[in-house]
Design brief:
Elements: H1 7-13, H2 18-28, E1 52-62, H3 70-85, E2 91-97, E3 106-108, H4 110-118, E4 121-126, E5 129-130, E6 141-143, E7 146-147, E8 155-159, E9 163-165, E10 168-170, E11 175-179, E12 182-186, H5 191-212, H6 219-228
Parallel strand pairs: 1-2, 2-4, 3-5, 4-6, 5-7
Antiparallel strand pairs: 1-8, 1-11, 9-10, 11-12
Helix pairs in contact: 2-5
């Protein structure tokens, strides 16, 4: 669950892209080396927003058919927005599309990005679709499964349950890192170890890059560096 004392560490994690975070997690949480991240290509129309780090607020949605009860649907939407209004930040909305064909209707566009930004949400990760690419709220991060033109019957149908976004299981309150490459869940109790591991890996990678720029570069030189640095990617 959200830990306010981690705020400085979370801000520090924003300096790194998601592949770098995944590299660090391979060191501090090796049991998660092949899980906990998105496994399919996704659409990111706002790469200029940079990486986001925050606490997941999960929900599920549907769009292919109208709700059985418009009144119940409205009440659930209100419940969803109230949870965001009271959520400690930074928050990231994570929404799974439950339709057989995900993305038929876009929940995310000009209105919802503006509304979520006003509620203090940093961005969204979804296997559903997005639209209004030229009218999205400035600075709001989106990572989605597709781009579609219609919102059809898009609405929230569940709030707070575990969701699956292209193979990444996310529970409400999980810590998430995302950028244009994808998203990954971070064990909150390993954040400080993760930052230390990333610093070490970046330094190791820097030595390889420096070697590549040398006039005397050779595979022998590379092999020498490899003997000391076994976790380079």
């Amino acid at each position: 669950m959200p830990d306010p004392s981690l705020a400085p560490a979370l801000e520090a994690l924003r300096r790194f892209d998601t592949p770098t975070v995944c590299n660090g997690l391979e060191v501090v949480a090796p049991e998660r080396r092949a899980l906990g991240f998105t496994r399919q290509p996704m659409v990111c129309p706002t790469p200029e927003s940079g990486p986001i780090v925050g606490w997941a607020r999960t929900a599920t949605m549907r769009a292919a058919a109208p709700p059985a009860s418009a009144e119940d649907a409205t009440a659930l939407m209100a419940q969803y927005y109230r949870r965001l209004e009271s959520a400690p930040g930074p928050a990231i909305t994570v929404i799974q599309d439950l339709d057989q064909e995900s993305g038929i209707g876009a929940f995310w566009g000009e209105v919802n990005t503006t509304l979520h930004k006003r509620l203090g949400v940093a961005g969204v990760v979804t296997d559903g679709s997005i639209r209004d690419l030229d009218m999205l709220a400035p600075g709001f991060f989106l990572l989605a499964g597709s781009v579609r033109p219609s919102h059809a019957f898009a609405r929230v149908v569940g709030v707070g349950q575990a969701v699956d976004i292209f193979g990444m299981t996310v529970c409400d309150g999980d810590l998430l890192h995302a950028d244009r490459h994808g998203a990954v869940v971070i064990p909150a109790d390993r954040v400080h170890d993760l930052l230390q591991a990333i610093d070490t890996l970046v330094a190791k990678e820097g030595r390889i890059l420096e070697a590549c720029a040398r006039d005397d570069f050779s595979v022998d030189l590379l092999e020498t560096l490899w003997r000391d640095d076994q976790d380079l990617h």
